[in-house]
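Notes continue from the previous slide.

Worked example: a multi-chain complex. Inputs as given:
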Amino acid sequence: MRVVVPVSGSDPKTRLAAVLDTDERLLFAEAMLGDVVETLAAAGYTPDVVATGPIDCPVPVTVDDRGLDPLVNGLLDDTGGDLAVVMADLPLLTTEAVQRLFAPDTDVVLAPGRGGGTNAVVVRHPEFRVDYHGASIRDHRRIAREIGADLAEIDSRRLATDIDEPGDLAEVLLHGDGRAADWLADAGFEVVAEDGRVGVTRN
Amino acid sequence: MRVVVPVSGSDPKTRLAAVLDTDERLLFAEAMLGDVVETLAAAGYTPDVVATGPIDCPVPVTVDDRGLDPLVNGLLDDTGGDLAVVMADLPLLTTEAVQRLFAPDTDVVLAPGRGGGTNAVVVRHPEFRVDYHGASIRDHRRIAREIGADLAEIDSRRLATDIDEPGDLAEVLLHGDGRAADWLADAGFEVVAEDGRVGVTRN
């Protein structure tokens, strides 16, 4: 099965602009991508990285500036619906989580992300197509139902934790031990107690 | 093993005050507690609910107004360190997630929550004690290390999703199918697309 990691190489992670400048956001996106690619490789998968622009990565990168939906749906066309898509901003990913993602022998496997997203999908059905806008997990459940595909969902905090907003950075420092966690620590970020959940501060 | 669900019966869920009034917050807390208690029961566990004040619940409630740390550490004293603690605000809990929590045969099992919390802990060691303030997951890892306890962590989005803030409510509507999800829907809450992750609106 082909495993694709799509990533933005052009002005990535704009929702982190309040805490990281443009260059830093690219470097942090590259660190997260490195974590994802290395973890997939450690689990026995060889991912294809497809970026909208130049981005540094441990494996060769294909540049393709189609949007996410046309890109993935084009690859679903090309492969006859035999494709896995794993997002590039999952720096807490572990080999165990990857193995759990590929374990169910169902037509479609979804890994929900926080806030209605779909952080990973495994497709073994010729008719399944993606729609990443809005509450995509709901749309993907509906699409699977409409084509009669049997569906599994993976209950993984590590697959669910995509890093998009400043409030997400604490998760990387608390639970990560790879490139992204190292990059944040080197950039001076630390976990601080706030009212309720912890946050981060930068020295 | 004794399984305890501690819950605030006095002015619960204050961080939801922007979207729910005082009475509603108690009703919503009761709905979430009902989900947790029923799911534990369905998984074969009989939880003891310990509340700081009166709260409606499908099982008998013991009122104990000690703070969370003195309460749990007192129970660890009483039981010789043979205790599980599951938080009351985990309405996405499933029987599978409960089974995974109790599966590791380690001295200590931790289920991290979003933002550094510890949403569930299973203790089989006489010296382990809890400290729920701040980034408790870090403290609990440290305490386990200091007493030489072997430790497992459960990678579960459902165990990680405690409901404390308005931004968490979308998770209940997107992924829940129990009392809490029904309560929110009956109260007029709906998922809406926002910039990035989805949120909720109330009709």
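Summary box: DSSP finds seven helices and nine strands in chain B. The mean pLDDT of chain B is 96.
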